[in-house]
Design brief:
- The strands form 2 sheets. A 7-stranded mixed β-sheet has the order 1-4-5-9-8-7-6, sandwiched between helices. Strands 2-3 form a two-stranded antiparallel ribbon.
- 39% of the residues lie in helices and 18% in strands.
- The protein folds into 2 domains: 89 residues; 228 residues, 2-Layer Sandwich (BirA Bifunctional Protein, domain 2), CATH 3.30.930.10.
- With 352 residues, the chain is an alpha+beta fold.
- The termini are far apart.
- The chain binds 3,4-dihydroxyphenylalanine.
- The site of 3,4-dihydroxyphenylalanine has 11 residues, from β8 and β9.
């Protein structure tokens, strides 16, 4: 039997010394970031060498613990530092190797090209209608969606107690502003401080307090048309709309006008196109009538001119307004307007 006591565990300083002597070589031998991290885990991880050494600390007499703690912390810091240095070296090596290698060919096509976006059905219809009016000589105007009550209603001849101005029917913000309920506000904006002639269309988003269902949304899109010049008559209005209908729905498409009322026109009318599905014979889409309503229109009311500083004795004009959703639903045979705002790719991809 020797004097040594074989049952005794190695002393803490000896264990730490062993770790301290071997870790630099272990790190140096790690040739990749992954191997380096593995090596670090074998030292500092839960089952690592240093962690095992620490367990010995608990068995030390309290007087020795402070010195032992300092040793452990010092070693840990040295390991962390060596790790960082080796990681930096590995990264630098990889970069140098990449830079020395063949250059990237930036002209190569990507293997998985990003899917291309495409227009929304409302955008398709809007752009097509705008193009038609552009080719007829109309400019394109824009207007604010948060609008003064004065420009959305008052100057257009709505009486103060008109139901459309009701809290229940419109979205009011503050200071006499509301979300515009139609694109007719652009008429007022165009006239203020300016004199005719005018000829423009104004597509845009409008808002009404409607509960949504298959045919209503609280937010939808309209396109306003506006033309003012000398001696503009109802015949001009009819001519422009007849030409528009033929260009949108194809040659031979006819329209009919029915008297109607809007505060800002006199006379006012609603325009129907002969049903594009049954050619006027009567079908479910036109509810058997042979016609489908597509817009409201009329000659600009003298009072609207007066509100905007334009002499109604000198100038006359027409205006019209149509709902883009309605036209898109009819065009594509979509039965529920909500499909237009749900952003379901299975629906939208059909318009690619
Ligand atoms: N602003 C009307 C609406 O939202 C549509 C309209 C009707 C516009 C007749 C016009 C017009 O310019 O002349 O229901």
């Amino acid at each position: 039997m020797s004097d040594a006591r074989p049952s005794e565990a190695p002393s803490l300083p000896a264990a730490l010394e062993a770790i301290g002597e071997t870790f630099p070589a272990r790190f140096r031998a790690a040739s990749s970031e992954a191997l380096l991290r593995e090596e670090k885990a074998k030292l500092l991880g839960k089952k690592g060498d240093l962690t095992a050494a620490l367990k010995i600390m608990g068995s030390l007499p309290p007087a020795d613990r402070k010195a032992a703690g300092e040793l452990v912390n010092g070693l840990k810091a040295a390991i962390e530092k060596a790790f960082d240095e080796r990681l930096g070296a590995i990264e630098a090596e990889a970069l140098a190797k990449e830079l020395a290698g063949p250059a990237y060919d930036l002209t190569l096509p990507s293997r998985a090209p990003a899917p291309r976006g495409h227009k929304h059905p409302i955008g398709i219809v809007r752009d097509e209608i705008v193009d038609i009016f552009r080719s007829l000589g109309f400019a394109v105007h824009d207007g604010p969606e948060v609008e003064l009550e004065e420009y959305n209603f008052t100057k257009l001849g709505f009486p103060p107690d008109h139901p459309a101005t009701d809290m229940q029917d419109s979205f009011w913000t503050t200071g006499g502003h509301l979300l515009r309920t139609h694109t007719s506000n652009v008429q007022i904006r165009a006239m203020l401080g300016k004199q005719p002639p005018f000829a423009f269309v104004a597509p845009g988003t409008v808002y009404r307090r409607d509960d949504e269902d298959a045919t209503h949304l609280p937010q939808f899109n309209q396109l306003e048309g506006f033309l003012v010049d000398k001696r503009v008559s109802f015949a001009h209005l009819r001519g422009v709309l007849a030409e528009f209908a033929e260009r949108l729905y194809g040659p031979g498409t006819t329209i009919r006008l029915r008297p109607s009322y809007f505060p800002f026109v006199e006379p006012g009318a609603e325009v129907d196109v002969r049903c594009v599905f049954c050619k006027g014979k009567g079908c479910p889409t036109c509810k058997g009538t042979g016609f489908i309503e597509i817009l409201g229109c009329g000659l600009i009311h003298p009072v609207v001119f007066e509100h905007c500083g334009i002499d109604p004795q000198e100038w006359t004009g027409f205006a019209f307004g149509m709902g883009l959703e309605r036209i898109a639903l009819l065009r594509y045979g979509i039965e529920d307007i909500r499909l237009l705002v749900e952003n379901d790719p299975r629906f939208l991809s059909q318009f690619r």
